[in-house]
From TrEMBL:
InterPro entries: HATC_C_dom, RNaseH-like_sf
Single GO MF annotation: protein dimerization activity
Pfam families: Dimer_Tnp_hAT
Protein name listed in UniProt: Dimer_Tnp_hAT domain-containing protein
UniProt domain HAT C-terminal dimerisation: residue ranges: 85-159
Length: 198
């Protein structure tokens, strides 16, 4: 059971997740920190290491990286958000709204935080992946090892993504094989009945 929990933690513990966790003002509020064994993200060694890796990727220029590190130090040490409203709203307001209201003193970090917290949660990618998995690992092909099925799903998904770049994707017999894709603007020149048949 412990190995399963560690595997799930490692799967969700990405650089970007650690950065988002570090930029969430809630985890610096006194109400959250008063819980047992809780510490702010800037004091956690693993989160700090992952955050730094992510920031280096986003800001490859050394000057920008230093500037964003200084902004993060101001944010985590409550040096830039010092007014009473900002401090009291740390655990109460949605992170995106709080960055909009109080983040102007750290412009690089504010822009990054708004991008991170503006991401909608959706299970559509997972649903699409499960659909592909059920296509690959069906009742007839049930003796396949999980690793083999996972590899085939990976290949199928990447081939589908690569095919979107080809000019024949928008024309020809396979024009509508991936209806909508990630964008919802590819229903041009398609009748209602054609879509219903798909």
């Amino acid at each position: 059971v412990h190995e399963i929990l560690v595997d799930r933690w490692n799967k969700s513990n990405t650089h970007l997740h650690c950065l988002a966790h570090s930029l969430n003002p809630r985890y610096y509020s006194l109400s959250w920190l008063n819980g047992s064994n809780r510490q702010p993200p800037h004091q956690d060694n693993e989160i700090s290491k992952e955050r730094k890796i992510c920031l280096k990727r986003i800001f490859p220029n050394n000057e920008e990286f230093r500037a964003v590190q200084v902004e993060y130090a101001k944010f985590s040490g409550c040096l830039s958000f010092t007014d009473s409203d900002s401090m009291s709203d740390r655990g109460k307001i949605d992170p995106k709204h709080r960055w909009l209201l109080y983040g102007s003193s750290t412009p690089l970090l504010q822009k990054l935080a708004l991008k991170l917290f503006g991401q909608p949660s959706s299970s559509s990618c997972a649903e699409r992946n499960w659909s592909t998995y059920s296509f690959v690992h069906s009742i007839k092909r049930n003796k396949m090892t999980p690793q083999r099925a996972e590899d085939l799903v990976f290949v199928h998904t990447n081939l589908r993504l690569l095919s979107r770049r080809s000019p024949t994707y928008k024309e020809g017999g396979s024009k509508m094989w991936d209806v909508g894709g990630d964008h919802h603007d590819s229903f041009e020149d398609v009748g209602v009945l054609e879509v219903a048949n798909l």
